[in-house]
Amino acid sequence: MTLSKFLQSALRVLLACVIMFLPSVALAAGPPPAQGVHIRPIGNPTWKPVDFHLFSAPIGTADTGYAEFGETVFGILPEPNHTYHPDLFVGPGAPHDPPYDHEMADGVAAQGFREGVRFSQAEFSNGMGIYAVWMNVPYPGTTGSSPDFASGPVIPNSLFPIHVVAISNRNGQVFNPFVFDGYVPALDTVGFDVDGHSHFPMFIADNADFGPGGKLRGSYTYQITMLDETGNGWLIEAHFAVAP
User: Fold this and answer.
1) Minimal CB count within 10 Å: which of 63, 98, 108, 232?
2) What are the beta bridge partners of residue 10?
3) Does 23 share its domain with 86?
4) Cα separation, 11 vs 32, whole angstroms
5) Which domain holds residue 148?
6) Do 51 and 127 share a domain, yes or no?
């Protein structure tokens, strides 16, 4: 083979590699999931969960009505960018530009919550709980209006409500079958004249209060399903351990 033909062949291989690589770059949305978190698409969703974090933080007790849960949540996503909404819990606040794949990270760091996959029993009882939190963003979504901008990538209202179900397991057995079961509504059904969500957060938390009793030590998993109105969505598993 002559040098010229060798260079032409090498160039074709290089171009093929570039072409294969570009789609994955174009579809990338946020950093990879946190340690202990695994996600898998259901069908072909046009939105994606990103910015996962596992940490221990106050959740409250029956005596306080678990009010500390709300304090933890709004400590992570404070005003003015996010604010309380009766139908969304954490709703849109002051308009702010994308990307939205670091807001959870910034909030968890600012509050000083300890992240990891191994926690003590004290971090899972007596008013403390283990949280799994993440943000959901267009992937690629559609172009439209949101509370954050007049035109940009959104998860359109037509995909909502998105049904979210979460349970927790301990050592392969159900620990709490009722961690979460609810719906994220379309913004145009809860008072916003926009085409969709630019992003929306999720907060999952559990502790000893909601389990069957007995020993707490063990290997735990949050199993979470998110399905939009087209039947597409995500399976999420967040693994952590509770030890003495």
Assistant:
1) 63
2) none
3) no
4) 31
5) 31-243
6) yes
Assess whether 37 and 12 both reside in one domain.
no
222 and 161 belong to one structural domain: yes
Look up residue 100 and give its two tokens: 């939205």
Greatest extent of the chain over all pairs of C-alpha atoms, in Å:
82
The answer on 63 and 136 residing in a single domain is: yes
Sign of torsion over alpha carbons 57, 90, 111, 99? positive
Q: Count the domains in the chain.
A: 2
Phi/psi at 8 (5° precision): -65, -40
Which H or E run includes 111? helix 103-111
* High-pLDDT (> 70) share of the chain, %: 87
**Quick one: 19 and 67 in the same domain?**
no
Structure tokens at 168: 């927790």
Q: What is the pLDDT of residues 120-175, one digit of tens each?
A: 999 999 999 999 999 999 999 999 999 999 999 999 999 999 999 999 999 999 99
pLDDT, one tens digit per residue, over 43-94 is: 999 999 999 999 999 999 999 999 999 999 999 999 999 999 999 999 999 9
CA nearest 135: which of 94, 168, 165, 107? 107
DSSP secondary structure letter of residue 200: E
Does pLDDT of 14 surpass 50? no
| pTM higher than 0.85 | yes
Do 3 and 90 reside in the same domain of the chain?
Answer: no
